[in-house]
Design brief:
The chain contains 2 helices and 15 strands. The chain is mainly beta. Strands 1, 3, 4, 6, 9, 12, 13 and 15 form an 8-stranded antiparallel beta sheet that branches. A 5-stranded antiparallel beta sheet has the order 2-5-14-7-8, with no helix packed on it. Strands 10-11 form a two-stranded antiparallel ribbon. The chain binds magnesium ion (MG).
């Protein structure tokens, strides 16, 4: 083989990267130098360790399957819901419960399950909002609806995954009664200066991994009757609703943002 042919073959087989040797005509810098100019090395994100079905290492565990230590009744007394088999179950007519701690911007993970029994004591089917209802009230005021919305017609802005009476979920990702479901919620709390609203709240919700609320602008405190409106407040507890049905919860954790 001629020497020139040998060089050509080598060049085809082992192409030499030319990027490192090139330079920008205008700056006189090599590409790698230009690339370095847009690298940001500080701050370094904190390490958060995770493992399947466990709270991230920097989360506050609000319910670990055992105790109600993090909770109290909505009126400030002792939380009266039931804990058994690693689950927290609404004790109907005992009232809502709320966290002892207050929160502002958060990432929240909640697992919940509605009962398989979908009839009342007289055997009459539970329908619409009566079909095993609960709710997650961010800052005690803004409800992400919990409801058995599996083959259960109700008003769209009141079904599971809705921001109650404010925003219809983008999809119905509901699983059947008796099957655990997940909510992953990112909440940016509203900001006030004295009594004035400066920035509304925003909420993003994934229901069983499906995006159902995409950075929705919260219209105000949840209202059953009439339009929602804001009243100034600071950081506030997370509240779970007793709507008279034995809905179950487990693996509740929250990260302050
Ligand atoms: Mg509700």
């Amino acid at each position: 083989m001629k020497k020139s042919t040998a060089y050509l073959c080598a060049a085809l087989l082992f192409p030499i990267p030319v990027l490192a040797a090139s330079s920008s005509a205008s700056s006189g810098k090599a590409d790698w130098q230009l690339a370095e100019e847009t690298e940001v090395w500080s701050p370094v994100p904190p390490i958060v360790t995770t493992s399947e079905n466990k709270a991230p290492s920097d989360a506050i565990v609000l319910f670990d399957g055992k105790s109600l230590d993090q909770w109290q009744a909505a009126d400030g007394g002792e939380a009266k819901w039931n804990v058994f088999n690693g689950t927290l179950v609404v004790a109907p007519k005992t009232g809502d419960i709320k966290t002892k701690e207050s929160f502002c911007d958060v990432q929240l993970h909640v697992e919940w399950m509605t009962p398989t029994k979908i009839t009342d004591a007289n055997g009459k089917p539970l329908e619409s909002q009566a079909r095993n209802n609960s709710g997650i009230f961010l800052q005690e005021k803004y409800e992400v609806q919990v409801l058995d919305s599996y083959q259960n017609k109700t008003y769209s802005n009141g079904q599971a995954g809705s921001i109650y009476k404010q925003s219809i979920p983008l999809a119905n990702a509901s699983r059947a009664p008796g099957v655990w479901q997940t909510y992953d919620i990112i909440f940016n709390a509203p900001k006030f200066e004295q009594e004035k609203l400066v920035t509304p709240g925003y909420v993003t919700v994934l229901h069983n991994g499906v995006l159902v609320q995409n950075h929705f602008e919260i219209q105000g405190a949840t209202a059953w009757i009439g339009k929602p409106s804001y009243a100034a407040h600071g950081c506030a507890p997370l509240r779970l609703q007793d709507h008279g049905n034995p809905v179950s919860f487990r693996n509740i954790w929250i990260r302050k943002l």
